[in-house]
């Protein structure tokens, strides 16, 4: 009987528990002779061999729960002094685990790929609210984040309308504008600002002014990774994360006073932050997470180490890690152009 360890790594996102449940239900079907454990807190549990037993009763009713029952972190598997392939192989041997199922975003998939290349049997499941992972049409978590951000746009519009203010909503997404695009389009924002397409202060203020001139309260959605022309990096004032990447956020607070000063329209900024990652997953994310989970045992049974599951159209497919890492899936400029044509 083979035993596999599941880990969730990087920022949490709605739908992680649905994946875990989807995988673990396999141990009760008799289809494969597999059992499962969970590594605590991402790669930390892998490095230190700290696990949680996962049987059917451990995953009962969890697909509707936000977060991850395993805990997560941005601890890297190569973090010294205890990380690295030799130590991890020893830890896996000590606890009797035959392979790793890594659920995460681009940083996690890059680490999973490295583990695989260093001889540790590893497969991947793509997750992130940012939807920025190459090789999959969608990641679970994105749909829930968009629903939450859209509700925020709707709410900001009623208060903005009442006070005739310009409302600026900053959403997450790192260097991709997917959450901003979808929530902005769904909420009928008058301008959507994304990292893929820098926009000048003059242009943004022209959109805001034209909205005001026809008697409406301007609604601007800005992605945290948005830059003005000439800015080399996205705004970051909170240092680096555990994967050594700049922590983004704060551009909305910079933009709002500029709009107010240039246009004379009272402007308020809201940074939605981690609200986008918390709480119950949407039905869509639960279904996608569950389908990914169901597909993992089959992937392992077929010896699919070194591969990540992906959604292509409505199919769950398998792709090599190498196809998923190293580049960000950004919003296509023609898609942005369709929306931009009616800004203001
Ligand atoms: O990748 C998911 C994400 O929520 C990004 O959108 C955001 O930039 C980042 O994680 C925030 O990370 P943390 O939870 O470490 O503040």
From TrEMBL:
Assembly information from the UniProt record: Homodimer or homotetramer.
Subcellular location per the Swiss-Prot or TrEMBL entry: Cytoplasm
Positions of Mg(2+) binding: 106
Protein name (Swiss-Prot/TrEMBL): ATP-dependent 6-phosphofructokinase
Source species: Gordonia defluvii
Pathway it works in: Carbohydrate degradation; glycolysis; D-glyceraldehyde 3-phosphate and glycerone phosphate from D-glucose: step 3/4
Lineage, uppermost ranks: Bacteria, Bacillati, Actinomycetota, Actinomycetes, Mycobacteriales
Alphabetized HAMAP family for the sequence: Phosphofructokinase_III (MF_01976)
EC class: transferase
Principal location: cytoplasm
PANTHER family, per database record: ATP-DEPENDENT 6-PHOSPHOFRUCTOKINASE 3, PHOSPHOFRUCTOKINASE
């Amino acid at each position: 009987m083979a035993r596999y360890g599941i880990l969730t790594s990087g920022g949490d996102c709605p739908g992680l528990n649905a994946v875990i449940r989807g995988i673990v239900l396999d141990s009760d079907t008799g289809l494969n002779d597999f059992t499962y454990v969970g590594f605590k807190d991402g790669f930390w549990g892998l490095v230190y061999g700290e696990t949680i037993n996962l049987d059917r009763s451990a995953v009962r009713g969890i697909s509707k729960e936000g977060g991850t029952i395993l805990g997560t972190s941005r601890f890297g598997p190569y973090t010294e002094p205890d990380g690295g392939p030799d130590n991890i192989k020893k830890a896996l041997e000590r606890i009797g685990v035959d392979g790793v199922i890594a659920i995460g975003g681009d940083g996690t998939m890059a680490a999973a790929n490295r583990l695989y290349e260093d001889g540790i049997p590893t497969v991947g499941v793509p997750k992130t609210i940012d939807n920025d992972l190459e090789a999959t049409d969608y990641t679970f978590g994105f749909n829930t984040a968009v629903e939450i951000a859209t509700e925020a746009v709707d709410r900001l519009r009623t208060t903005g309308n009442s006070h005739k203010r310009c409302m600026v909503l900053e959403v997450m997404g790192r260097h991709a504008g997917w959450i901003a695009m979808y929530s902005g389009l769904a909420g009928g924002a008058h301008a959507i600002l994304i990292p893929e397409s820098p926009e000048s202060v003059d242009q943004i203020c022209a959109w805001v002014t034209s909205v005001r001139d026809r008697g409406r309260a301007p609604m601007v959605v800005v992605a945290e990774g948005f830059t003005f022309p000439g800015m080399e990096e996205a705004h970051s004032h909170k240092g680096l994360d555990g994967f050594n990447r700049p922590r983004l956020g704060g551009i909305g607070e910079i933009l709002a006073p500029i709009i107010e000063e240039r246009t004379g329209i009272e402007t308020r900024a809201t940074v939605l932050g981690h609200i986008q990652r918390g709480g119950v997953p949407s039905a869509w994310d639960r279904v996608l997470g569950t389908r990914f989970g169901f597909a993992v045992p089959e992937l392992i049974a077929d010896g699919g180490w070194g591969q990540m599951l992906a959604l292509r159209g409505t199919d769950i497919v398998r792709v090599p890690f190498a196809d998923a890492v190293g580049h960000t899936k950004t919003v296509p400029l023609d898609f942005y152009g369709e929306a931009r044509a009616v800004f203001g």
